[in-house]
From TrEMBL:
Transmembrane regions: none
Domain Fibronectin type-III: 252-343
Organism: Streptomyces actuosus
Name of the molecule in the record: Alpha-amylase
GO biological process: polysaccharide catabolic process
Length: 990
């Protein structure tokens, strides 16, 4: 395809204009008692409106290619004035249903859009500072002589960058979805005046043009004629103009400072300090010059830009301008210059599989402990000998991506189609193999990568096998050594006989990467760049270098400022919190340090938010399929809902489309180690709480909003939290779930996890919590993990093979997504202490190396289907729980009700017995399940039921079916009009 324009490049970190604040994961119009909005009829034209408010261009050109067609000749077709701050062009698409597009000024300056073409559809489309929406911003609402309604809509708590008014005059018809574009009236307010004709009021709904709606608790707004405001789900009639007291914003932000640019290969990371503005900065424009492709302008909302896919060995220059809500542009920053390096061997690839995550059972691995594919990247750390790992030839960093790629077929042979891996970012501590001590969030830890086995290679290899990669991510904290690119503290390093083994001499030309050995010290865990015996300029730590009066465990003298801590004054408030947690169920659990090593990010600070959003955009762009969120409970829900979750959703949507964003699976660890429904009566510390949006507006300042939200929800208590029927059948009928109040974060089912000492107990506790979860069919369910076993046990589960089989039978048929910690398929390390710290051998723990059980070869033809195996891996695959797992996965994969169905226990007798149904997309799957015990089902649909385990056929004519007890670990799955027996009998399923 001919493309005479700067080539599209991978999306850049932070290039998501407007994405930081938008509401998450509400697709489609709100459930409401209005006449359904008319669906926009696809035409073969697209009318594209482009905002010129922040572009100082004398002309604007649209350079485009209809899908499947050819590009226009550069610079494209000149766009025509439409209305104030907008130009437009109508494009004939022929038979195409969309187009690729980019914009330029006709003189060599391009809207870079983060290095990618804009993917546009049909109808009316707006493009404003990188944000694509759907409406006619210049539409005339009518010129009749009847009544009018002037509507002001507040986005203070939403952060939408575009707003549409979808409305129906009383007795009239609805506008075409998404409605008319509203105009920015003043900070936080949007305005539209519409002609009502003879009507005296209108029904209204508001949306951001990209599928996110103000649901208003499922009801339309009723707005009278005259001037009204709509704020916090409240309509105020005959209202004063909320913008009347605000003077027009004519003051531009300050110019960004501290602009730096660094190159790695053909990628450049640009960062800068936040600008200031009297009413708030809303974004930045980054202008790049250099190379042969012309000048580009990229809109971002963070203070970090990753510019990828550049020309090798080429000089580039970057300037940054700040933008406020009124469209005022700051002066340009000083110029940052950089020269790229050599081109990579191959370009980055990767697209998420984008299917419903409930279809994919999850296998969880500690990458560094799973399988070693490349011994050259193994590293032991400072405790290698002392811990006993050296004696076992078992370095803590042992497994790697190559080893995981080599054994993906093993995981697929078990029947798993999703792999959850521990964090991949560069770590830094004495015990960092697990990945939770992040240091450089923009760099993959080289101890995990090998030639031909990069992180990108792992993602691509998994996708080629139809398997997803879920990346463990940490937003709450870095390691004690800070975060490279954000803030790294300087500590007092004592170069004397006591501490010379620990503090390394500075090597100015060396940079820590965890893998490379520093020649002076002979260490890969070099820390000479972190310490300075001389007091550094600008030091804020008191009593620098003076003895504390204490001694270390070895009897060595301890000095002030020797190690970072929250109370030392070494961590600025702008980046880190400055306190230790005192109450794990108090507010300080969200705003203080967890542990000595875990420096707690100030997640309510814009620089921190931008740093993290920019970093995780990088991994989204690589094509990962979802994020497991570590320590989610230690960040206020309002911060998740305002910042991080919308940023994830918007990035995936703009990079891969709305469907991929809908199925990008985010599941959070909200660790509530109690057996009751609410964590010690605190909504703010309970898992289900994080699945919901906020219910009211809070202060625009995130730190203040966090306190306001905490107090409000604590006062509301557990009895006044939202409830949901999304997981439950209505009798025997499946109903469309209502996700309009969904936050965007699903959860690990901590209550079932804590109660899995007994399957029946886990089942009862799980059911009891499901009405307080937005949609419990998305819960991630496991027995034990790298942290705990049931009942907060510090050891791996050791309940016995029969109990394991029963637990698995429940997890694979009950609502939620079954998840297995590596090795549990052979009861690996059962009863072993999961973690005993850096000074004991890992081989004795629940995090032991697993690769010895995977030696040999195997051939896999499909999920759960191993055609041949030899060596130790054949012995592993012959174990009874492996056979059990394989068949459970076969059965679950064949029956949609077991994957995505709602459930009910109404009319059912029996211990672990339930019915499930899923209806959608031409599928109607209805299943009756009993685990271990007998059951009787009454009031069920008549028809022919076939058991997926035995093939038994039952014809129901009176609405009742009875099942004898199949035995511990066994189960029965009677499916209405089902396929019959699935798979072969095994040690438990028979």
């Amino acid at each position: 395809m001919r493309r005479d324009r700067p080539p599209a490049r991978g999306w850049t970190a932070g290039a998501l204009a407007g994405g930081l604040l938008a509401l998450a994961a509400v697709t489609g119009p709100p459930a409401a008692p209005r006449t359904g909005p008319a669906a926009a009829t696809a035409t073969n034209t697209a009318t594209i409106y482009y905002s010129t408010k922040t572009r100082a261009w004398s002309a604007t050109y649209l350079h485009y290619a209809p899908d499947g067609g050819s590009w226009t000749t550069v610079p494209g077709t000149r766009m025509q004035p439409a209305c104030t701050d907008w130009v437009k062009l109508t494009v004939d698409l022929g038979q195409a249903t969309g187009l690729q597009a980019t914009f330029n000024n006709g003189a060599g300056t391009w809207d870079n859009n983060g290095g990618r073409n804009y993917a546009l559809g049909t109808g009316d489309i707006t493009v404003a500072d990188g944000v694509v929406a759907h409406s006619d911003p210049c539409a005339d609402p009518g010129s009749g002589t009847g009544k009018t309604a002037t509507v002001y809509y507040s986005t203070q708590s939403l952060g939408w960058t575009t707003v549409n008014l979808h409305y129906q005059p009383a007795g009239g018809t609805w506008t075409t979805v998404p409605g008319l574009g509203m105009e920015s009236a003043c900070t936080g307010w949007w305005k539209r005046t519409v002609d009502l004709g003879s009507a005296t009021s209108l029904k209204a709904a508001f949306n951001n043009g990209n599928g996110t709606w103000d649901n208003n608790n499922g009801a339309d707004y009723t707005v009278p004629s005259g001037t009204s405001t709509v704020k916090n789900n409240t309509v105020t009639a005959n209202a004063a103009d909320p913008c009347a007291q605000q003077q027009p914003d004519t003051q531009a932000p300050t110019a960004p400072t501290g602009v730096t640019a660094s190159a790695t290969g053909t990628s450049v990371v640009v960062s800068w300090q936040p600008a200031t503005d009297d009413r708030g900065v809303t974004g930045y424009q980054v202008t790049r010059t250099g190379g042969t492709k012309g000048t580009t302008v990229t809109d971002v909302t963070s203070t970090v830009l990753s510019d990828t896919g550049l020309e090798p060995d080429t000089a580039y220059a970057y300037t940054v301008r700040a933008v406020d809500a009124a469209g005022n542009l700051s002066a340009a920053s000083s110029t940052a210059r950089v020269t790229t390096g050599s081109a990579p061997d191959k370009p980055a690839t990767g697209t998420p599989l984008g299917t419903d995550p409930r279809k994919d059972p999850i296998y969880f691995v500690l990458t560094a402990r799973f399988n070693d594919g490349d011994s050259s990247n193994n590293r032991g750390g400072s405790q290698h000998v002392k811990s006993g790992n050296a004696a076992n030839d078992d370095p803590m960093f042992r497994g790697d991506f190559k080893g995981l790629i080599d054994k993906l077929d093993y995981i697929k042979g078990l029947g798993f189609s999703a792999v959850w891996i521990t964090p991949v970012v560069l770590n830094r501590s004495d015990y960092d193999y697990h990945g939770y001590h992040g240091y450089d969030f923009y760099k993959v830890d080289p101890r995990l990568e090998s030639a031909g086995a990069s992180y990108q290679d792992l993602i691509d290899a998994a996708h080629a096998k139809g398997m997803k990669i879920y990346q463990d991510v940490v937003y709450n904290h870095s390691s004690r050594w800070g975060a490279k690119g954000l803030f790294t503290p300087t500590v007092y390093g004592v170069r004397d006989s006591q501490w010379s083994w620990y503090y390394d001499a500075r090597n100015e030309g060396f940079e820590y990467d965890g893998l490379t050995v520093e020649p002076q010290s002979g260490k890969s865990y070099y820390n000479g760049d972190l310490w300075s015996t001389a007091e550094p300029t600008g030091n804020t730590c008191l009593n620098w270098g003076k003895p504390t009066g204490g001694k270390s465990a070895e009897g060595y003298t301890l000095y002030n400022c020797q190690w970072p801590s929250p109370t030392s004054g070494m961590f600025p408030k702008a980046y880190y919190h400055q306190c230790w947690i005192g109450n794990w169920e108090g507010e300080d659990a969200r705003s203080c340090w967890l542990h000595e090593d875990l420096a707690d990010f100030n997640t309510e600070s814009a620089p921190v938010q931008n740093y993290l959003i920019g970093a995780y955009d990088k991994y989204i762009d690589m094509g990962v399929d979802g994020f497991r969120v570590d320590t989610a409970v230690h960040i206020p829900r309002v911060t998740w809902n305002r910042r991080f979750l919308p940023a994830i959703h918007e990035r995936v949507a703009q990079r891969f489309g709305a469907g991929a964003a809908e199925n990008f699976f985010v599941f959070g660890e909200v660790a509530a180690f109690v057996n009751d429904k609410w964590n010690r009566g605190s909504p703010n510390h309970s898992s289900q709480f994080y699945t919901w949006k906020e219910r009211r507006e809070y202060s625009a300042d995130d730190a203040t909003a966090a306190l306001e939200q905490y107090e409000y929800e604590q006062q509301q208590g557990t009895g006044n939290q939202p409830t949901s029927t999304n997981a439950f059948l209505d009798g025997n009928a499946y109903h469309t779930p209502d996700h309009s109040r969904f936050s965007g974060m699903n959860i690990i089912d901590m209550r079932m996890h804590m109660n899995f000492g007994d399957a029946q107990n886990a089942f009862g506790n799980g059911k009891d919590s499901d009405d307080s979860v937005n949609d419990a069919t998305y819960n991630v369910v496991y027995v034990d993990s790298h942290d705990y076993g049931p009942n907060k046990s510090s050891t791996r589960y050791s309940g016995g093979t029969d109990a394991w089989a029963e637990n698995m039978s429940l997890m694979w048929t009950f609502r939620g997504i079954p998840t297995l910690y590596y090795g549990s398929e052979i009861e690996f390390q059962k009863g072993a202490r999961i973690d005993c710290g850096p000074t004991c051998p890992l081989a004795t723990t629940g995090r032991a190396y697993y690769g010895d059980h995977l030696k040999g070869s195997l051939t896999v033809s499909d999920f759960s289907k191993v055609d041949a195996a030899s060596g130790e891996i054949a012995t592993t695959l012959a174990q009874p729980l492996v056979k059990h797992l394989q068949r459970l996965n076969q059965i679950r994969r064949a029956i949609p009700a077991l994957q995505m169905g709602q459930y009910s226990t109404d009319g059912i007798s029996g211990g672990m017995a339930f019915k499930r149904r899923y209806t959608g997309g031409g599928t109607d799957s209805f299943a009756l399940v009993t685990v271990s015990g007998a059951a009787t089902y009454t009031g069920i649909p008549n028809g022919t039921y076939r058991d997926a385990v035995t093939g038994d056929v039952r014809t129901v004519t009176g609405g009742t079916l009875s099942v004898a007890a199949p035995g511990k670990g066994n189960l029965r799955v009677y499916v209405l009009n089902g396929p019959g027996r699935i798979g072969a009998d095994g040690p438990y399923l028979k």
